[in-house]
Amino acid sequence: MDTSEIRQLVENITVNNLENQDVEVINNTSLLMLGKGRQGAVFHYTDDVCVKVFGNEEDCTREYEALSMGQHTGLFPKVYDHGPLFIVMETIKGIDLREYLQSQPLTEELSAKLIEMLVTFKEIGYERIDHHKRQIYLQADGSLRVIDVARTIWRDRVYPYPRKLLTSLGETHKETFLSHVKAFSPELLEEWSYYMRMEELAKEIYSLLLEGGNKKDIVKDISGRLLTTDEKDNASNLVNLMHKVFKEEWVKTMLARGENPDEVMQKIDEHWAALEQKQQQKQQPVVEESDTRREKIDFTDIQRIINGFNNPDKKDKKDKKDKKDKKDKNSKKSKIDKKKFEKATPAEKNKMLRQELTSMLMQKIIDNGKKGKK
Ligand SMILES: Nc1ncnc2c1ncn2[C@@H]1O[C@H](COP(=O)(O)OP(=O)(O)OP(=O)(O)O)[C@@H](O)[C@H]1O
Ligand SMILES: [Mg+2]
Q1: Does the predicted model carry a pTM greater than 0.85?
Q2: Is pLDDT at 307 greater than 50 in this prediction?
């Protein structure tokens, strides 16, 4: 396809990113705008071809990359050309699901198509297997097409279930969709339900801790309830999920307190990344010396966290010297835990990991709570 004309036209369109709102567009061409969002504006070129002009190169590269990864599936617009700030692509027709579901029921057939779509996302290798209903278009032949894929890649943390899709469906359609999922694949529903429960729990932990109260009791109560769910171990998914929930809840709190959410989010990420890195470094020799399977959690850290809960005042007062003493003391304790862990059955190991993850989450909340108050 010859795109020289469209390339020239694009030079006369400027798109500027704005904070928390759709882009600003300065269009000195006769091209009509089909729509815009936070990342770019899309213009009609012919009935079959449109061009998306971006406010920054990173978003453009990311969307181009994501579209390229999925070209073979036919789910996304065909890409004809691209530059640093634009992508020439196929115009997607049909009706988007936000509009469609306003007047039409969510049939089993449509749910099946949505599940197929999620499977395709996974097969392509997208990190976020999730999409808002307004970005999904139903075609005359009943198939689905999807636009706006930049956010599916280059993500380090994602919800391990299609949260955005489910939320965007709204309560009634969500119920219907989940009942269809159950009919197609009970295992899939079980997995999603597990993460949804974890998310609820993480939110609860957050609000409980924000209110204050006796932390020891909270730990006991929440850990006990976490342990009642006994499913496959997805330790890292769980850590990510909790991190996400925590971050979102924390940002909400900070916003309500009039803080800058971007700064807060960055701090949370840095904090979490440092903790993970520390764990990875500490964990390596452990894995080498015992050829048992992956032990993701560092027990010294966990023990310290638990001690911190039980003796919050002591922990606050510690100076560098104390820190060292405590560390030695704790490493002794952690060895006992490690032994316990090695002897444990897989189900018990699973439970222990869960318990520790909960503790870690709560530590984050408390640490950041302290930071926030300063
Ligand atoms: N390939 C396409 N075919 C037809 N219409 C499109 C196409 N791509 C985008 N649009 C229209 O342009 C609008 C904005 O596009 P898009 O959602 O990709 O922008 P965005 O800035 O990336 O959005 P977001 O803020 O959600 O990331 C869409 O809602 C849709 O109406
Ligand atoms: Mg987008």
Answers
A1: no
A2: no
